[in-house]
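Q: What structure does this chain adopt?
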Amino acid sequence: MYPNPSMSAWTPRKHADAFARMLQDEQRMTAFRQALDACVTPDSIVADVGTGLGVLALFAAKAGAKRVYAIEKQAGAAELAQQMFAANGMADRVQVIIGEAQNISLPEQADIVVSELIGTAGSDEHIQQILGGFCRRNLRPGGQVLPREVECLIAPSSYSDLTNGLASPSLSDLALEPLAQLPGEANMSFRPAQGGVELLAEPMAYERIAVGHTEVVAADPLHARIDITTAGILRSFVLWFRATVGADKDGHALIIENRPGEYRPSWSSAVFTIAAPVAVKPGDSFMVSIDTGRRSHCLNWHIRHHQA
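A:
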């Protein structure tokens, strides 16, 4: 569990705030802990890929796992994780391995692989490539991967940074139509404010990742057909993820999602503003193409659309 892998060399000071936001995300922490509590047994061998602070590895150890391997490519993070394991009395059951997960072969096969390499748009921390390669080498047949599935979602929206600013209560008595008609900056990605994100259609999944089953990503561009259900002004396309982490002890699915407009201390949502706003109505359809650079960070993605 660590910030985006494209970040520069790890230092405690540089990443303290990012880790703090992750730990404050109760939906995230609770889902992973409950999923591990439900599937770990006293005989379980667990691998935590991208351990970061070591929290998921600690969850597995406290759930009773026989042995846990904590995989981390950043030496500084691995050292801090080792201190966390010692502080929690788990140093004898959790082994830290430093290196690129795809290149590591464990001393024994894992029954459970857990990882939180989920980016803003779902696939942009290379979860498919990294977990696919690691599981091919190290997951026993019939073993479990947490999360089980990541859906990458897209929906049209009337939101833009400009229109969100125009909604300020202090401007409520001003006529702002000329400003509202200004074009946006095409393909600019940013964190939307809490609230104010009106979707103009049901979200569509442009990619579904069965985590750990394959390391081969679909070729760009990815496609989605959008059918408008709400009349409005199309100003952007919003991307987010919905991940099925696993199930709790009662068999209920554990879901984490960074749906736009809802406050999250950790993940943002990605908003790609279109250059020229378009009036849309129910029945209108668009085809959207998403160029991901083979799932590089979504700030570098490019979205193209045309009316179907």
